[in-house]
Amino acid sequence: MQIYRLENAIQTYAWGSKTAIADLLGQPSPAEKPQAELWMGTHPKGPSMVIADGDRIPLQQLIDQQPVDILGNDVAMRFGNTLPYLFKVLAAARPLSIQAHPSKHQAVEGFSRENREGKALAAPDRNYRDDNHKPEVICALTPFWGLNGFRSAAAVVDLLAPVCPQLLEDAFEDLKNRQGGGVRKFFKAMMTLSADKRQAAAQEVLDKANPWADRSPVYRWMVQLARAYPADMGVLSPALLNLRGGLTPKHVDVPELLRVVKFVETSVKIIDAGPVRPAESGYDCPAEEFSLTVIRTTKGQPYFSPSKRSVEMLLCTAGEGRLDDGGQGEILTVKKGDSFLVPAGLDPYAIRGNVALYKAAVPLPRQ
Predict the structure, then answer these.
(1) CATH number of the CATH domain containing 34
(2) CA distances for 171 relative to 130, 152, 191, angstroms
(3) Can you give the residue range of the structural domain that contains 316?
(4) Among 111, 130, 161, which residue terminates a domain?
(5) Under 8 Å between Cβ of 341 and 59
(6) Residue 365 pLDDT class (50, 70, 90 cuts)
(7) In this model, does residue 200 exceed pLDDT 50?
């Protein structure tokens, strides 16, 4: 067994940055096209390539050749000889779309339903391109703003009061008076405005939010979102959600969105990294498919891996160091932008130097 270097796919979505991923990888910056996401994994739209004995092969091909050695026996059995996560770097120069991720049951049912309907996987009106529920952990490498979970109805009313467009006044009055439907009813009214009315309503939000922009990030983000998406009612999202439907030029299936979304008041859960072992800290997450940790080494504090592990992916975000490749006696240099696949069957390995790496793995079952 050996540690493999990876070459990864870059997705050139319109909202991406021309500098962030290029700078991370040490490539010419600014790039010619926006670079939105760096993908590390086996996704068919952008699989990682493994560098093995001078050859480049798709990561899934390597897994197919030796699934237990690469993934580990438990992961290979539980996830059908596949890597169950996609490790990403996101670089947003413009706001990303608001998304509602289905439960696993909803994802399986929705994917099967659209297959029966004969919708092509690449169809623009396709909602479910696979049967995964897509739990996520976002770790900010640079300053980052996100919207997550619905505010209380009372908080929504307070924040909407100065900026609610006239076209939504009836729904807003119902929300204020605590009449049936609450936030869900207002959200539905907002999302089902006709195209011509959306443009007028979004412009009204922009005009009303502008004087408030210096007082609160809620209104400042309304202004920025309205300028980026001038005909999208997602511009009201900062008032509804704890500071992603809407804010996208892509297809939005409002009935399916309303079916999947849980209109439940929640608070934002910020996950602080806690100690795992010397030089490694982890972000607590209930997902069975992945875990995320960060390894920070110094000359006086190297990292030593546990002997029992699942498959791991490493991404270096800062510094320089080296990987001591298990029992092979091989040393790999590590610098910012490098990424590696560490097979489960590899002997314990070490990381030395002044370096920071993020590690994606699959949690092992508790004994």
Answers:
(1) 2.60.120.10
(2) 35, 16, 12
(3) 274-361
(4) 111
(5) yes
(6) confident
(7) yes
